[in-house]
From TrEMBL:
Keyword Transmembrane helix: no
Similarity annotation: Belongs to the FlhD family.
Listed InterPro entries: Flagellar_FlhD, FlhD_sf
GO MF term list: DNA binding
Pfam families for the chain: FlhD (PF05247)
Protein name (Swiss-Prot/TrEMBL): Flagellar transcriptional regulator FlhD
Organism: Vreelandella alkaliphila
Main location group: cytoplasm
Gene from which this protein is expressed: flhD
A biological process term (GO) from this entry: regulation of bacterial-type flagellum assembly
Assembly information from the UniProt record: Homodimer; disulfide-linked. Forms a heterohexamer composed of two FlhC and four FlhD subunits. Each FlhC binds a FlhD dimer, forming a heterotrimer, and a hexamer assembles by dimerization of two heterotrimers.
Domain remark text: The C-terminal region contains a putative helix-turn-helix (HTH) motif, suggesting that this region may bind DNA.
């Protein structure tokens, strides 16, 4: 796969993520903030962005979303869980809920 193709896919994922984040925040703000691991200020900003701003933000060469499970240990617990597979979704949700919420410093606009 070419670099251009990867870049196009990253930008598509970014836009899809931003649109989903907006929709989640409009539907159920508190649940969305928990799922997206964003604070109130960032939630307000995401909801306020128009289509042009979303597209501009999405056109980045880096993914703007990231895995919520950042440790290999937690990912293994989810993917190699010997428990009843009917409970695997609940187990993954509980592990995600235990993940520390990180607030990233807000930089100056460029």
């Amino acid at each position: 796969m070419s670099q251009t193709s990867f870049l196009d896919e990253i930008q598509e994922i970014n836009l899809a993520y931003l649109l989903l984040a907006q929709r989640l925040l409009v539907e159920d703000r508190e649940a969305a903030m928990f799922r997206l691991k964003v604070d109130s200020e960032l939630a307000d900003l995401l909801v306020s962005l128009n289509a042009r701003q979303l597209t501009k933000l999405a056109r980045n060469n880096q993914l703007i979303c990231r895995l919520s499970q950042t440790s290999v240990h937690q990912l293994r617990k989810i993917t190699q869980n010997p428990r009843d597979q009917g409970l695997s979704g609940l187990h993954a949700s509980l592990l995600s809920a235990c993940e520390a919420f990180e607030v990233f410093p807000v930089g100056e606009p460029e």
